[in-house]
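Revision sheet: structure tokens.
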Amino acid sequence: MLLKMENKLRIIGGEWRSRQLKFSPELGLRPTPARIRETLFNWLRHDILGRDCLDLYAGSGALGFEAASRGAKSVTQVEQNSIACQHLAANAMVLKANQIKCCQTEVIHFLDGNIQAVDVVFLDPPFSKNLAIQTCQCLEDKGWLKANAKIYLEVEAELELTQMPPTWKCLQHKIAGKVGYYLFTRET
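Predicted:
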């Protein structure tokens, strides 16, 4: 009998610091590495506590769970894959994370639904699928962002972000290997 191996990630800060979460390795997920998460949450240190967050293309849930661990009021994780959603729900139950809700649906379909404007968005779409710019524009056009919302975007390092919404200003940007990661704010 073959046992399925499960991948794990460790929460790096907040209430659940050092807790491990499991996710399915078969899905080809690439959770945001701990070093990048640490940098991101240093950038957001004053923007998470008591805020409403949206984790699009949630995958392993690394960013959403990290935000909840650091005091986010609510985190909505949106993920299309049913197995990944099962892992997200199981991890939320293990942590007793009542502020986390997982929605199993395609991200653009979700953004076409009932709008609940948020303070922080984590956007980490699958690479090489041309989803980043489309999703950013959809967030802006459909009214998902509160005034001065922060938007974290993780994309292929070589991707040129020339068509970002004009109301977004890049606050931070770094490259780590093949990953480019950005923090934007929505200026009103």
